[in-house]
Write a structure and sequence with these properties.
By secondary structure, the chain is of the alpha+beta class. The protein is built from four helices and seven strands; from the N terminus they run βααββββαββα. Helix 1 (23-51) runs antiparallel to helix 2. The protein is elongated and about 70 Å long. The protein starts with 18 loop residues before the first strand and ends with a helix.
Amino acid sequence: METGSAAGAETTGTEPMWTGLPPGLLRMRRLLLVVWLGLLALALGLLLGLLAGPVWAAFALLPLALLAWGWVLLGRNWRSWRYAERADDLLISRGVLWREETVVPYGRMQLVEVTSGPVERHFGLASVQLHTAAAATDATIPGLDPAEAERLRDRLTELGEARSAGL
């Protein structure tokens, strides 16, 4: 498995050059995990400690155990995401237990969006969402650098227009 640069992701052989997601997405997701489960553990520990006694406050360790488990799962999930630009289509691969590979032909793309919510913007990230005629197509690439997301949007739009026009 080879990870290529975003600018030269087109392949010449049979194996596509895969591009992984930037580490900023993993940092953002892990920070959100720590914040939410840390707050839950703190609130649960205080509430149980005050209302039921200090022995019951030990149940606040459950969210911390979930935090440790989630930390590992987020890393595995982040490593599973990748995409490749080929001559006629875009491949998106993801999943740890159930691998999923989506192939989106350039000629079938109707709309390519770049979105970035407030948390993503804070971490300098953006997502690319591909819309096709098929409602079931889940073609999203999350957590890209905004410049890469815009480059990918422009390239996919250009290739989509050329393929749909029959060029």
